[in-house]
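User: Before I run my own analysis I want an independent prediction to cross-check against. Here's the chain; please return only the structure tokens and, at the end, one sentence I can use as a sanity check.
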Amino acid sequence: MTTNKGLALVERDESGVDLAFRANVLDGLRASPKAIPARWLYDDAGSQLFEDITKVPEYYPTRAETEILKTRSGEFAALVGPGRAVVEFGSGSSVKTPLLLSAIEPASYVPLDIAGDFLRAAAADLAEKFPGLPVHPVEADFMRRVELPGEVADQPKLGFFPGSTIGNMVARTAVDLLRSMRETLGTGARLLIGMDLIKDEEVLVAAYDDAGGVTAEFNYNLVRRINRELEGDIPLDKLRHDARWNDDYARVEMHLVAQETLAFTVSGEAFGMEKGETIHTENSHKFNRRTSNMLLLAGGWEPVERWTDEQGRFSMILAEARPPRSAP
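Assistant: Structure tokens:
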């Protein structure tokens, strides 16, 4: 069965299970070490929990990025120009989006997100705030090329990818995504992307292991989702949230750690974990100027301008999809 939400297709079986979700979970649990792609943290409940995370004291990226969007609006307007279709990848609640839309005089807004109900509610809320702006929500896995609505086909595009979500991906996947974004938006498009910066380990780890336990609940929600949607019986009370800094890869990692030897099933398949074994659920890579430039260039985007917040914690980069070239 295929469900059409907007113009993107989510492949589901007869019972409504997302086929990609099931495949990724089963493959990840079979692997050694076990790992599940971070995008599956974001069902409707996970998306709401992430919005809660952005409000905890330890989580600085949202405040830092919001500061940039507020203080640099005139520069965005000058470099981007009016009349673009703003295509937001992984729009979530779109809380930062009004700051950008207010600055650049867009022609339309296309939010893309995998959490359909959350997407449509956020799109409706934004349409009320900008009553003259056409809003075209599309439920999609933006890790693949997305067919945009026909209404924006002839409009120049500005991709918007805030929050340093690019940091959730290993380098290979991040480059694939940037190339897919280029295919979706086309040559000549612009991309405004957030990238978190390398800083003290204590600050980084605290942002993913807040004292109130909100991030832990976000991580546990993945298990609840697996148990609910994939007929799993993973014993959540036997798992512990863990956030750690991996200096070799310049990233914070989130894991679910088995507190004892475990046996469970998912979609009828048996799995086990030894005490201390983990399920790796998220990476959050941190960047500097050189590594962010290299990543964008590998994905087909040439950096145009960059900004940081006053404390130098977070960066936003404007890049352009220029025609390919084989020499400097």
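Sanity check: Residues 199 and 313 are 7 Å apart (CA to CA).
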